[in-house]
UniProtKB/TrEMBL annotation:
Organism: Bacteroides stercorirosoris
Protein name: Transcriptional regulator, LacI family
Pfam families: LacI, Peripla_BP_1
SMART domains referenced in this protein's UniProt entry, alphabetically: HTH_LACI
Ranges where the HTH lacI-type domain occurs: 7-64
Gene3D superfamilies: 3.40.50.2300, lambda repressor-like DNA-binding domains
GO MF annotation terms: DNA-binding transcription factor activity; transcription cis-regulatory region binding
Alphabetical UniProt keywords: DNA-binding, Transcription, Transcription regulation
Tagged with keyword Ligase: no
SUPFAM superfamilies xref list: lambda repressor-like DNA-binding domains, Periplasmic binding protein-like I
InterPro entries xref list: HTH_LacI, Lambda_DNA-bd_dom_sf, Peripla_BP/Lac1_sug-bd_dom, Peripla_BP_I
Length: 334
């Protein structure tokens, strides 16, 4: 049951038989600095916990200049990858004493700007942002204004800002080689029509693998409209099949889902012969009649790296760090 009144430091001090100052030292992690005995410190912490003490974050932020909150801006919260990102980040941030405030840009730079402004106005200490297309100027402005920031999943090479992402080039290369080694002759890459580095790197990895296999003449990349992927897939995929394509590499989880609807409508004859690979697993894949191998992004590692860099920047560190993590290839067979 929640207490009927807000518990104060004075209440804890009276219950523990110590001064209010001593309680403050312990609850603010300064017991060693002020030489508070371990037995006394543990008694104070136990009483504070029993009384369900909640610190006054507003007052604490005024004293320290920090709110112990960080903002996360993803591009599309409905995307399973970004939903998982939010979940893992919240867990990791809690371990470090931070609260996370969330926002989604829905792949719209104007909405991204509004969400970022709202988070800054709420006093977040720093931001982890999955930038959307055409948001370079907004990111550069944050950097120029010394806002602690780490880009996640996507980044802009021309901006001197910390980022954490998958090694997308290598991931795509591995997926393409898997299809070729499995006997498929003419795999096609399905990507979004955006000018973002992660998409470019995935396409580049596919092209490099095809070129290294002596199949440069069979390179095929089709681009779906990000706002209407299913409609684009219905129009483009059948043309590729008719043109000799025998496998598809889907550049994102959401592209996979859109294209699977189209492929399902082509019938069992096509499904039984086609090779499929993509990024990040999805429970939906289990219900499809063809195996879909994929690259699993190391999201926990990526989150821990991003959070560590951000907290370091919040503390005053100004070193720009770039992290590219390797994904894990997960082979699925029926």
């Amino acid at each position: 049951m929640l207490p009927l009144k807000k518990i104060s430091l004075k209440d804890i001090a009276e219950a523990a038989g110590v001064s209010t100052a001593l309680v403050s030292f312990v609850l603010n992690g300064k017991k060693k600095e002020y030489r508070v005995g371990e037995e006394t410190a543990q008694r104070i912490l136990k009483i504070a916990n029993e009384m369900n003490y909640q610190p006054n974050l507003a007052a604490k932020s005024l004293r320290s200049g920090k709110t112990k909150t960080i903002g996360l801006v993803v591009s599309d919260i409905s995307n399973p990858f970004f939903s998982q990102l939010a979940r893992v980040l919240e867990d990791e941030a809690t371990k470090r004493g931070y609260t996370v405030l969330f926002g989604s840009s829905d792949e719209d730079k104007d909405k991204m700007n509004r969400v970022v402004s709202n988070l800054i106005n709420k006093g977040v200490d720093g931001l982890i942002i999955v930038p959307c297309d055409n948001s370079e100027k907004s990111i550069a402005s944050l950097v120029n204004n010394n806002v602690p920031i780490v880009l996640f999943d996507r980044y802009f090479p021309e901006i001197n800002v910390s980022y954490v992402a998958l090694n997308n080039f290598n991931a795509s290369y591995v997926l393409t080689r898997h299809l070729l080694n499995a006997g498929y002759n003419a795999p096609c890459m399905v990507a979004y029509d955006v000018n973002l580095i992660h998409m470019k790197e995935r396409v580049r990895g596919y092209k490099k693998a095809m070129d290294d296999a002596g199949k440069k003449h069979l390179i095929n990349v089709i681009f779906l409209k990000q706002d209407t992927p299913r409609k684009s897939a219905d129009r483009l995929l059948p043309k590729m099949i008719d043109g000799g394509v025998d496998a598809f590499l889907f550049a994102t989880n959401m592209i996979s889902l859109s294209c699977l609807y189209t492929i399902k409508d082509m019938g069992e004859e096509v499904i039984s012969k086609i090779g499929l690979v993509g990024f990040d697993g999805n429970p939906v894949f289990d219900f499809f009649n063809a195996p879909i191998s994929y690259i699993q992004q190391p999201i926990e590692t990526l989150v821990q790296k991003a959070l560590g860099i951000l907290i370091d920047n919040i503390a005053g560190g100004n070193t720009v760090q770039s992290v590219l993590a390797e994904g894990e290839f997960v082979e699925i067979t029926l």
